[in-house]
Design goal:
2 helices, six-stranded mixed β-sheet, alpha+beta, elongated
Length: 105
C-alpha cells in the first residue's frame, strides 16, 4: 500500500491510504493546502488518513491531501450523466415525498 498506484477510472496516479475506520481511500499524490484529508505514515510505513477537526487539528507530522474522488475527471463525468432529468408527465417523484414525510411509513 505504500507505493503509488493508478485510478481505475481515469488512470491518473493516486496514493492509497487507510482511514481510521479501516477503509481504503485514494488521495491525489501531491500534498495540497486546500485538501481536507490529513495523511501520515504509521510505524509500519502504512499511509493513514483522517479528517482533521477542531478537536483534533492537523498535527506537525501530517500533510493535507485532496481525496481523489473529488478531482477524478471520470467520476465527475459519471456524476454528470447520473443527474436526474425532468420526470415525464404523470410520474411522481417518490423520493421527494419520502424526504418531506421524514421517512415515516
Amino acid at each position: 500500500m505504500n507505493r503509488r498506484s493508478t485510478c481505475f477510472d481515469c488512470h491518473r496516479e493516486v496514493l492509497w491510504t487507510v482511514t481510521d475506520a479501516g477503509k481504503r481511500l485514494a488521495v491525489d499524490p501531491e500534498p495540497d493546502e486546500t485538501g481536507n484529508t490529513a495523511v501520515y505514515r504509521d510505524g509500519t510505513g502504512t499511509r493513514r488518513s483522517r479528517r482533521p477537526s477542531e478537536e483534533l487539528p492537523l498535527m506537525g507530522w501530517e500533510k493535507l491531501f485532496v481525496p481523489h474522488v473529488a478531482t477524478c475527471p471520470a467520476r465527475q463525468r459519471q456524476a454528470a450523466q447520473k443527474r436526474p432529468v425532468a420526470l415525464p408527465t404523470g410520474v411522481l417523484d417518490l423520493a421527494a415525498y419520502r424526504r418531506r414525510a421524514g421517512g415515516r411509513r
